[in-house]
Amino acid sequence: MGGKRSAGLLLYRRVEDGIEVLVGHMGGPFFMGREAGAWSVPKGEYGPDELPEAAARREFEEELGLPPPEGDLVPLGEIVQQGGKTVTVWAVEADLDPADAVPGTFTMEWPRGSGTVRAFPEMDRFAWLSPEAAAGLLVRGQDAFLDRLVRQVTGGA
Fold first, then answer.
1. What is the DSSP string of 49-112?
2. Cα 104 to chain center, whole Å?
3. Mean pLDDT, residues 103-107 taken together
4. Positive or negative, the Cα torsion across 127, 61, 77, 19?
């Protein structure tokens, strides 16, 4: 089976007027100064020898520097992103303070061709947002997870 695969956890919490979801702004120079299309469910790639659920938990910890929350995982299915990557996500009801996150980092040559390798956070900030607000910021296609979560939590169609 070809193509890259990614798995993640979408945290949600109940608030007075519905729910909020925890999403992260992708780090690095390509997303600096961008908002729309620069936010994502905390997720990451996994190989054929790792189960998607285990990868989702591992990636949550790598991206936020916090252990994945305990709780029942609600399967939100999968999507295929524009670049062809298949993304599988589970929701879990939990609350945490985004200020406690200590994001993992990645390294890349920047500026390109400079020979200088720099470290950047995988995600440079996190926020609790309503599903409607998050939908306008997420990478294209990930808003499907928000729709599925709202239907699961509210029991709506």
1. TS-HHHHHHHHHHHHHSSPPPPS--EEEEEEE-TTS-EEEEEEEE----GGG----EEEEESST
2. 13
3. 95
4. negative
Percent of the chain at pLDDT > 70 equals 97
CA 31 to chain centre: 15
Write the CA distances from 116 to 104, 105, 108, integer angstroms.
Answer: 20, 16, 8
Q: For the chain, how big is the Rg over CA atoms in Å?
A: 15
pLDDT at residue 157 is higher than 60: no
16 Cβ contact list (under 8 Å, min separation 6) = none
Q: Phi-psi category of 37—alpha, beta or left, where left has phi over 0 and alpha has psi -120 to 50?
A: left
Which pLDDT value is given to residue 83?
A: 87
Predicted confidence band of residue 156 (pLDDT cuts 50, 70, 90) = low
Neighbours of 1 (CB within 10 A): 5
Tokens representing 57 are 């938990």
Residue 1 pLDDT exceeds 50:
no
CA 76 to chain centre: 13
DSSP 8-class letter at 34: -
